[in-house]
Amino acid sequence: MPHITRHITTTCPYCGVGCGIRATLEGKRITAVEGDSGHPANYGRLCVKGSALHETLGEQGRLTRPRVDGVEVEWETALATVAERLAATRARHGRESVAAYLSGQLLTEDYYVANKLFKGFLGTPHLDTNSRLCMASAVAAYKRSFGADAVPCSYEDLEEAELVVLVGSNLAWNHPVLYQRLKVAKARNPLMRVVVIDPRVTDSCEIADLYLGLRPGSDARLFNGLLAWMADKGRLDRVYLARHTLGLEEALAAAGEDDVSVAAVAADCDIDPERLETFYYWFASQLHVVTLYSQGVNQSSSGTDKGNAIINCHLAGGKLGLPGAGPFSITGQPNAMGGREVGGLANQLAAHMDYDSPGARDRVTCFWATATLTPTLPEAPGHKAVALFEAIERGEVQAVWIMATNPAVSLPRADRVRAALEQCPLVIVSECVADTDLLAYADIVLPASSWSEKDGTVTNSERRISRQRGLLQPPGEARHDWWIICEVARRLGYGEAFAYAHPAEIFDEHARLSGFENLPGTPGERLFDISGLAGLDRAAYDALSPTQWPVNAAAPHGRARLFEEGRFATPDGLARLVAVRPRAPEQRLSASRPLRLNTGRIRDQWHTMTRSARAPRLMNHRAEPFIEVHPDDAARLGVSDQQLARLRGAGGDYVGRVRLAKGQRRGEVFAPMHWSDSFSANARVGRLLEAHLDPVSGQPESKHGAVALAPLPVAWEATLLVAPALVGEVDWRADTAYWARIPLAHGQRWQLAGAPESADRDWLAWAQRALPVAAALWLDDPDGGRLRAAGIEGGRLRWWLMVGPPGELPGLAWLDERFAEAARGEALSAARRRRLLAGCDDGAADAGPVVCSCHQVGRATILRAIRDGDDSVEALGARLACGTQCGSCIPELKSLIEDTQEEKVHERLAPQPDVIDVA
Ligand SMILES: Nc1nc2c(c(=O)[nH]1)N[C@H]1C(S)=C(S)[C@@H](COP(=O)(O)OP(=O)(O)OC[C@H]3O[C@@H](n4cnc5c(=O)[nH]c(N)nc54)[C@H](O)[C@@H]3O)O[C@H]1N2
Ligand SMILES: Nc1nc2c(c(=O)[nH]1)N[C@H]1C(S)=C(S)[C@@H](COP(=O)(O)OP(=O)(O)OC[C@H]3O[C@@H](n4cnc5c(=O)[nH]c(N)nc54)[C@H](O)[C@@H]3O)O[C@H]1N2
Ligand code: SF4
Ligand SMILES: [Mo]
Question: Is the pLDDT at 755 greater than 90, yes or no?
């Protein structure tokens, strides 16, 4: 019987752009995804991660059974054990001995019930979230200025602006669809200018008119300088300041404690003064300015001040509350905003009410009807993420429930976090993937449903609430996070307060709480109000169309822009300029760790790669952990391109492959945050970093580590490709100095390297011994340190080994196709068997590593086309289709085009390119 094909719209589970997706469902499978043309976040666009979503699904690798103390159990036992042990811990050690650590990847409904259970019913304030590592500083800065955590802007503002300033945001890679929107808007409006402020030249510079490659951590100085410059040049909006703000004099005085001449600011920020003043001039002379900022601002020990230094300049110029204007903190996770709305941060209570908001405790107590319970709502804020794990380390917190985040990788001082979890008596982990570093520390493992199975809402960076819809059944015994929490609550005796039959009922309660005693002009007034969405029945909830909050009587259809009337959420309605005194990063460089470590993201992977690495094509862009180094530093330190090297940081080491990057400042290196022990031997950046915190927000300084760099001594390097069935049979990682696991579509790739002691390894003998299938073909050149060999069984490829530098690898698609054949039971043809060691068909040209993930177009193929004269992005697209789908590889295509025109390359990537001219 043919399957029925259906199309259902939902929302992407990755970044905070929150793109709408139209999924094609055939029977019980999602066979395709495309952008939802009706969704106002993306109007049909998707980036490469979003468009590979259907390739990440399937039962393989999922957690499907609950486990207690390492033993698989029924749900009944698991839930009862969680409830019993939580209750026992609280009874024995007090309510503050239990804690939860949540994630901006939970849905609002999951988040709401977790917050309600822990703060409202277990009575512990210690519930925090990974958003602490992400945008806690942006939240704190908005609150200090506006009196509420409210992002004033919409995506449209980016398109309507005359000047867009990207500060510490690599939008092209991390919010790709928004970047594409900006790029199109800029092409349409020749007057629009884009400025990029980032210590490293990123792909986002592709559309920049001006690039400021500042000294890491000097953003507050730069924006204080701007405020002082505006005052000096008579560019303040005195009327706006007088009517709508307080604090200008104090902010100017604080800025003025340093020398605010352009020359002095430029020297401190290590930027060319003329360029700095150009930026100041552009900013001051446009009203329609959007400053979009992200982790380069937030992940700092002075992130809150940096946010305020930016907001100060917008207030001082009256550049907000208008189309195309405002300080726009872009959020990272799909539901970072939803978490803020329910009160998922330890310093919040619920629904934008803090412990110190007037009447808030009573209001929440009354709404949740917890007054009759002991214990009742906590009195003061709980531990923020880093402090929470310190409390676990000290034994004050004895039980922690971690959901949808991986603190064993993503927190600074990650090894100490591991040690703390190791000795914590009760660690409960809700997770959907079977193989994560955190699971090793879990006493109780709860299998959660995942994207495409979950049902609920998320809020994107522009305050837009959208539905994620459940399209598939969770595999095995996996259950929804909200259900798991409510079932535990019931077993703790709070059944009545958690008697929800569907997420729609939770959303309704959340919406009602947001409107509860929320009256204009009263002390209870809160900006976050979605009472207009209360009372939706199941059908209306299912049909909910994307809406920007607030949604209430005053704004029944939501609001695109906040503060249009110049009235803020402070008691007097006035915004505050905040006095900011710039501070250098807390982590100091030293003789033993002289390099500044910058960490962040790559285009095709999501965080610890638990989901994105399931789509093999997403592994192609950066297959191994790496370290970006300026060529001068590399020469000085004796490392070369593609060589393996070691970083030494505060809490341990990191090994990755060197990538020479002229866009990197001298004295600074960049390493990705994505690799965990599941993917490489020693490539967790979290262990390199000290936990220096922002004093206001508690956000750690993840962008400013201090490290030493040295080559990793290795005697050999090898690439091993194996059929999936062989994985787990032998541990080829034994005796290696380095390994990385790289999923392919059909086989699995392992990069291996050995220490000098293992130099005389007889590779062929090793392969015969170590691999379960004997070598059938080989080409051995021991003197040259090279070997290629393959294991064939029943005429089918089982493994393929190359000893030698990975630079000599053929493109691996051809070999991977042989594993696909083998899986289908097909034997190698005689011709292919002959070509097996070469790794490509006779006479065929090698495609090289993939650049365009959407159409799987390789670097070598692109370079050949460029040399043939197709030397524009358009021509390449017409010939090879690369860059024509999501567009994320266009900057890379451009750089390949430029690389082939040797002389241009220096200008483009010099750390301080003049004006980046993309024409
Ligand atoms: N592909 C992909 N996209 C993602 C994610 C992902 O994992 N992968 N994660 C999502 C999440 S949760 C988040 S929070 C966002 C983050 O999105 P971004 O903030 O854009 O990401 P990062 O790469 O962490 O850092 C941004 C930039 O800050 C710069 N930077 C470092 N130090 C400084 C400094 O002192 N000053 C300035 N001005 N800049 C500095 C870095 O060089 C880097 O280019 O991305 C989201 N989108
Ligand atoms: N050095 C350094 N460290 C950083 C950063 C940095 O830039 N540099 N960035 C920080 C930032 S901004 C962030 S947001 C964090 C991200 O760091 P983490 O939150 O630790 O990373 P993820 O890999 O997203 O972890 C989410 C986990 O939840 C699981 N999961 C996914 N969906 C669900 C679900 O619906 N339910 C349940 N129960 N589980 C689910 C996933 O499989 C995964 O294991 O890292 C932070 N750490
Ligand atoms: S831009 Fe973000 S939300 Fe949109 S498809 Fe890509 S990852 Fe998903
Ligand atoms: Mo994030």
Answer: no
The residue segments making up the domain with residue 655 are 595-711
Cα(220) to centroid(ligand 3), Å: 30
From the CA of 386, the nearest ligand is 2
CATH of the domain at 14: 3.30.200.210
In a domain, residue 511? The reply is: no
Those residues with Cβ within 8 angstroms of residue 414's Cβ, 6 or more apart along the chain or in another chain:
407, 408, 651, 684, 686, 687
pTM for the model stands at: 0.94
d(C-alpha 671, C-alpha 655), whole Å:
10
* Residue 572: strand, helix, or coil: coil
Atom of ligand 2 nearest to the CA of 410: 47
228 CA distance to ligand 1 middle (Å): 28
Among residues 776, 803, 834, the one where a domain terminates is 834
Residues 488 and 354 in one domain: yes
- Give the CATH number for residue 668: 2.40.40.20
The Å distance, Cα 807 to ligand 4 centre, comes to: 33
Is the beta carbon of 41 within 6 A of some atom in ligand 3? no
Q: Find the range with the poorest average confidence among 16-25, 108-117, 616-625.
A: 616-625
Residue 890 Cα to chain centre, angstroms: 21
What total of structural domains would you count in the chain? 6
What token pair was written down for 554? 């005053």
Give me the percent of the chain exceeding a pLDDT of 90.
81
- At 249-299, the pLDDT tens digits run 999 999 999 999 999 999 999 999 999 999 999 999 999 999 999 999 999
333 lines ligand 2 (CB under 6 A): yes
Q: Show the CA angle centred on residue 425, arms to residues 420 and 426, nearest 5°.
A: 100
Indicate which residue's Cα is closest to atom 14 of ligand 1: 332
Mean pLDDT for 84-112 is: 97
